[in-house]
């Protein structure tokens, strides 16, 4: 019941709908009072609704490398053993890395702990990590406050990383994209050498492979640079006169940067680097003073077409005003939000943002972190290092195990002749396990055959390695095998495999751009994994021609020699301004090759 006397109701002597001036005044007053009363009620209701609800994380997943723990205070010996086993499982799921959220219930409720309980929990976690041979790094602590009368409670986010044994470090590949002169090679030089640039490109000199690159300052070939992190999250690079072998030995996580060319003249090299080397992530470098220019949009489109998660670095912020940097960031945000991209830009401005960005980046395909930094002043460079240190692998241990159970398949991307060693091939192991002394077959040759060979020694990141596992990049020494018989795009596979080679194949494609129409007889350069060859369009199923944005199933025919392809492999083709993407749907081996596949053993030649 509402007490009318308190709520400002009219007195019994006055009618609610009174006559004359007095009645009108009373009616107006009563309406005003009723309005105030209604607002008070609504405000009370809003105050009740505006109480900050308890913050939540998503509920804990059974799989993956993230573990929630309310507290770890003085566990019994039995409980401690169980916790250590659980930690070992989470490390295995994260391929050597796990993240523990302390002060969080399994359903994701952020309860928080007092300082004493938090200190005891972190001490227990450190003991657990030591038991399984790992180290812990406190990423961040946050206060959880529900009401004013409760004491401040904290939750902690802790990274657990396993100390490497037998060279089993976590290896992530990052392709470096961006327009010419955006500062890609300089940024890599600063990260990997540990010294800031002098503003005239000194940091990039160690990355160049050719004299003309040093003279012009432009990258024209693909080069690889390594940046390590030890089990405590500290940077391990070439500073303090370390060698590549020493970096590998003392790192538990390795970032391999694939430095690609920015100039449009070398676009085919850049595409080959993206399709062949299977990067886990792409880093798009944009110069703050020029903004989105040249090949920036094209490189962004390529990474998105190949479904490579991308993050952006705005470089050279020391050269321009804060307003110019903000304008470049806004320009990037507009492009990323466009319907073709559908990305959610996330500007990283402090270490807390860097931790959040690294975790959300791999969980959600639409998140795109943006860093603003300088290779000369070193501004915000540490934020990028924090991000790279925490960045988890895309594939989990289960997917890795499944690939390792398959037969050996190694993609040949580079071929060298090394004095006193002989022929050496570089590339990525797509599936299986490769060991020193293993016998494989390599092909297809121009005639569509496979040749026998023996793997001598293996090197990963310039240091010796005895066993190569699926997903890892390495160089293999082949002894006195004739280099002239090898070419980029070949595969080295187990003799037990019956590889399907083809001169013709069908693919479901989307034509991204064509000046006129795409029709039968058109010639394009096709990129499928490490395969790069010109192909002719034999027919378009159900259509006579294709225009920009249209889809079709197309039959391609290689013009030089047969290739080894996999069903479902991503495909990218180009010719001038013509561009398209798709995936392989059907392989059509020629009749002579079909007969050869029936007698596979007869085709293997001893070399």
Automatic annotation (TrEMBL):
Family membership: Belongs to the TRAFAC class translation factor GTPase superfamily. Classic translation factor GTPase family. EF-Tu/EF-1A subfamily.
SUPFAM superfamilies: EF-Tu/eEF-1alpha/eIF2-gamma C-terminal domain, P-loop containing nucleoside triphosphate hydrolases, Translation proteins
UniProt xrefs under InterPro entries: EF-Tu_GTPase, EFTu-like_2, GTPBP1-like, P-loop_NTPase, T_Tr_GTP-bd_dom, Transl_B-barrel_sf, Transl_elong_EF1A/Init_IF2_C
A GO molecular function held by the record: GTP binding
A Pfam family recorded for this sequence: GTP_EFTU
Composition bias, Low complexity: 592-607
Residue intervals of the Tr-type G domain: 169-397
Protein name: GTP-binding protein 2-like
Location of region: Disordered: 1-62, 585-607
Keywords for this protein: GTP-binding, Nucleotide-binding
UniProt biased composition (Basic residues): 25-48
Ranges annotated as spanning the membrane: none
């Amino acid at each position: 019941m509402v007490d009318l006397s308190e709520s400002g109701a009219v007195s019994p002597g006055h009618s609610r709908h009174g006559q004359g001036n007095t009645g009108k005044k009373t009616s107006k007053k009563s309406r005003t009072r009723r309005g105030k009363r209604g607002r008070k009620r609504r405000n009370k209701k809003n105050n009740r609704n505006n109480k900050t609800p308890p913050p939540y994380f998503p509920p804990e997943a059974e799989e993956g490398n993230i573990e929630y723990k309310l507290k770890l205070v003085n566990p019994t010996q039995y409980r401690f053993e169980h916790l250590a086993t659980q930690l070992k499982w989470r490390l295995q799921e994260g391929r050597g890395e796990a993240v523990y959220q302390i002060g969080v219930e399994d359903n994701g409720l952020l309860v928080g702990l007092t300082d004493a309980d938090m200190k005891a929990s972190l001490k227990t976690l450190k003991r657990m990590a030591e038991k399984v041979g790992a180290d812990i790094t406190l990423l961040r602590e946050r206060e959880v406050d529900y009401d004013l009368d409760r004491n401040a409670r904290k939750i902690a986010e802790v990274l657990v990383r396993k100390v490497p044994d037998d060279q089993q470090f976590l290896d992530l590949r990052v392709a470096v994209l961006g327009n010419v002169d955006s500062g890609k090679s300089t940024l890599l030089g600063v990260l990997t050498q540990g010294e800031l640039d002098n503003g005239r490109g000194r940091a990039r000199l160690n990355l160049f492979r050719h004299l003309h690159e040093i003279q012009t300052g432009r990258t024209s070939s693909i080069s690889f640079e390594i940046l390590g992190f030890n089990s405590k999250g500290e940077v391990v690079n070439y500073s303090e006169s370390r060698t590549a072998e020493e970096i590998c030995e003392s790192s538990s996580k390795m970032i391999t940067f694939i430095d690609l060319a920015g100039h449009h003249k070398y676009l085919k090299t850049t595409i080959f680097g993206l399709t062949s080397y299977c990067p886990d992530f792409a880093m798009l470098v944009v110069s703050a003073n020029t903004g989105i220019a040249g090949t920036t949009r094209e490189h962004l489109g390529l990474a998105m077409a190949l479904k490579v998660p991308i993050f952006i670095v705005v470089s050279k912020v020391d050269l321009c005003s804060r307003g110019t940097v903000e304008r470049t960031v806004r320009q990037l945000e507009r492009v990323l939000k466009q319907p073709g991209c559908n990305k959610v830009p996330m500007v990283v401005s402090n270490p807390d943002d860097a931790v959040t960005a690294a975790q959300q980046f791999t969980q959600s395909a639409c998140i795109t972190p943006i860093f603003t930094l300088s290779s000369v002043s070193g501004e915000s460079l540490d934020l990028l290092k924090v991000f790279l240190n925490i960045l988890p692998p895309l594939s989990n241990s289960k997917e890795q195990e499944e690939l390792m159970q398959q037969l050996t398949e190694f993609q040949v991307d580079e071929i060298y002749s090394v004095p006193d060693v002989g022929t050496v091939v570089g590339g990525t192991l797509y599936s299986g396990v490769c060991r020193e002394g293993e016998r494989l077959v390599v092909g297809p040759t121009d005639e569509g055959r496979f040749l026998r060979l023996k793997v001598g020694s293996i090197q990963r990141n310039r240091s010796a390695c005895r066993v190569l596992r699926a997903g890892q990049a390495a160089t293999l020494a082949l002894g006195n095998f004739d280099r002239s018989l090898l070419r980029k795009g070949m595969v080295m596979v187990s003799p037990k495999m019956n590889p399907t080679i083809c001169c013709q194949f069908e693919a479901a494609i989307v034509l991204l751009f064509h000046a006129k129409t795409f029709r039968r007889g058109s010639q394009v350069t096709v990129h499928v994994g490490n395969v790069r060859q010109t192909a002719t369009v034999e027919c378009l199923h159900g259509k006579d021609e294709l225009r920009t944005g249209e889809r079709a199933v197309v039959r391609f025919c290689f013009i030089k020699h047969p290739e080894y392809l996999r069903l479902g492999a991503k495909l990218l083709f180009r010719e001038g301004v013509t561009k398209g993407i798709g995936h392989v749907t059907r392989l059509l081996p020629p009749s002579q090759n079909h007969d050869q596949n029936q007698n596979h053993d007869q085709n293997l030649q001893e070399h």
